[in-house]
Write a structure and sequence with these properties.
33% strand, Ribosomal Protein S8, Chain: A, domain 1, Small ribosomal subunit protein uS8, alpha+beta, Ribosomal_uS8, RNA-binding, single chain, 132 residues, three-stranded antiparallel sheet, Dna Ligase, domain 1
């Protein structure tokens, strides 16, 4: 079993690969951070649903992917902040993806928020990923 240093990047790659292979679901090892990020994906309409399955060490997140016909709901997804290079932004400098059509996921003092929610709450933070 390989040691994963960036579990969020691992989750993003698993979701990307599942969409490329036209899978209906994908399993991801559970963590509270991933659970919060997937909650944003669901609220923003990028995935159909997800649920935590199992107990203890074998707990997983089963993600139900969303398609529009044969096209995936996620056109692109990119990890921004990495363990070796954290990227932070103040509320005034939060980036916009595709002129506001995409979503920026920000880790703030109030939890994981989208760029729109962070602007509304008037908080900046670590830029986790872009999704469109």
């Amino acid at each position: 079993m390989a040691i994963i240093t960036d579990s969020i990047a691992d989750m993003i790659v698993r979701i990307k690969n599942a969409f490329m292979r036209k899978h209906k679901t994908v399993e991801i090892p559970h963590s509270n951070k991933k659970h919060q990020i997937l909650d944003i994906f669901k609220r923003e309409g990028y995935i159909q649903d997800f649920q935590a399955v199992g107990e203890g060490v074998s707990k997983k997140l089963v993600v139900e992917l969303k398609y529009k016909g044969t096209t995936s709901a996620i056109t692109g997804i990119k990890r921004i902040s990495k363990p070796g290079l954290k990227v932070y932004s103040s509320v005034n400098n939060l980036p916009k993806v595709l002129s506001g059509y995409g979503t920026v996921i920000v880790s703030t003092s109030k939890g994981f928020l989208t760029d729109k929610e962070a602007r509304k709450e008037n908080v900046g933070g670590e830029i986790i990923a872009y999704i469109w």
